Amino acid sequence: xxxxxxxxxxxxxxxxxxxxxxxxxxxxxxxxxxxxxxxxxxxxxxxxxxxxxxxxxxxxxxxxxxxxxxxxxxxxxxxxxxxxxxxxxxxxxxxxxxxxxxxxxxxxxxxxxxxxxxxxxxxxxxxxxxxxxxxxxxxxxxxxxxxxxxxxxxxxxxxxxx
Amino acid sequence: xxxxxxxxxxxxxxxxxxxxxxxxxxxxxxxxxxxxxxxxxxxxxxxxxxxxxxxxxxxxxxxxxxxxxxxxxxxxxxxxxxxxxxxxxxxxxxxxxxxxxxxxxxxxxxxxxxxxxxxxxxxxxxxxxxxxxxxxxxxxxxxxxxxxxxxxxxxxxxxxxxxxxxxxxxxxxxxxxxxxxxxxxxxxxxxxxxxxxxxxxxxxxxxxxxxxxxxxxxxxxxxxxxxxxxxxxxxxxxxxxxxxxxxxxxxxxxxxxxxxxxxxxxxxxxxxxxxxxxxxxxxxxxxxxxxxxxxxxxxxxxxxxxxxxxxxxxxxxxxxxxxxxxxxxxxxxxxxxxxxxxxxxxxxxxxxxxxxxxxxxxxxxxxxxxxxxxxxxxxxxxxxxxxxxxxxxxxxxxxxxxxxxxxxxxxxxxxxxxxxxxxxxxxxxxx
Lengths: 162, 431
What we know:
The structure holds 2 protein chains of 2 kinds. Chain A has 4 helices and 7 strands, in the order ααβαβαβββββ. Chain A is of the alpha+beta class. A 6-stranded mixed β-sheet of chain A has the order 2-1-6-5-4-3. In chain A, strand 5 and strand 6 (141-149) form a beta hairpin. The longest helix of chain A has 23 residues, at 3-25. Chain A is globular. By secondary structure, chain B is of the alpha+beta class. Classes of the chains: A alpha+beta, B alpha+beta. The interface between A and B is large, with 37 and 45 residues.
């Protein structure tokens, strides 16, 4: 593992990952699509499927337009109990670089969910995040985000992206 | 030392000061199956009775797919109601379902969700069983050096795992604690063609999605029977101008009233002023709203009959869905009176090409725990459970489409299938 690569890019990728998390937690969720390359892919799957080589993901948007559609559906169409998230992200590590120059970044996440009506804050989802980050543009962006949550079960539903 | 005299007990309240128990507390409303009293969703004693009369009673319960246990020795663990069970394939290829509980001291035998084994082995005292559940060996059953051991009259054949009856249809495996229940296809009756229509060749599992719903299992069981709510609660299609209540659709209920399936054909909308006026009440209707990338909705009519959605629900704990090209089973597992797990198993066919598999996977975005089309269902179940509170008063009003088991016909704007559910439920429960 290339520690120099990690040192060189740690601040930039940390900023990007934090920007994503803060945008969701602050209910500026539309912002995350701007952090994604137009052809970027955002995937949320369970470790249960990943460990068994099963391809199913519960969320899989293949480009930023599909992510925007999902967020718009969440805003205007879907009905769910009002809620917000708190992300705790740790162990951000630049682990490598692809042939096309994308940084490979791994981190751990925990998301707490607060239901507005009851006021309860509960652990919602935790797992690992495998990102590819593109530094070629004016601002860093994700070329892909693959979130793998540890639990076999989703608590109630996942309508706000994590 | 003298024994201390215990202090005198306070005098008992005179019986007349204790309020009499409410004689109507657990009496079903006189309207019968067109009401569901809220205590039925909240009372732990009702829940315990359901486990006995329904889940361990005379019903077929979905436990998995033949392709999940493809080889001799393959097994899967799951639940029927609260009871842990193992679905296993024996050396001769036969399917077996046994209670996942050692006949000795009740320890869990199989600990993995899926696995392979040559025998079912309890780690506690090394009792081991064949894949069909017969006891083959108990450690130190003869004792050691003449001491210990099981009684001389111990009969291994009397100490096997509890065996369930097993039956299959189109690769689906069902099990029942009842040994005199009719064969599965007879039990399913008129909904059987709905299963044969979709699961017409060898399946492939694409993955699992478990939703933990903090509500009584029946709130979810009623949901896929309830075609009335579909276009009202689920506003994704309507908001993006994709679906109308006036599409050609129909409903089939089996002769017993236990099972039901609905289908809808896409692209068969009839212009309806009633729909338009209803739609404008339902949401801030915006005809200009379009998906930027509607490719996730692109589907092919793979069964050649124009049916774009089919939801099939069998009593008490199974759903098969076809939503465009997304295929899945849903297994409902109660987890106490106020919680249930909904386990979605997404499917394709073994002979699907890569593009078809990709289409099915993309459409997973529409259903399940993060599904854009139907994510609301779990939320409504939980909101209902909170609104029932302790369930001590009130009842559901279930008269859409009429007051009888037949009324409403095959209309989607009907709660006929829910009335039929409560009719069967009451018979099974003796309520």
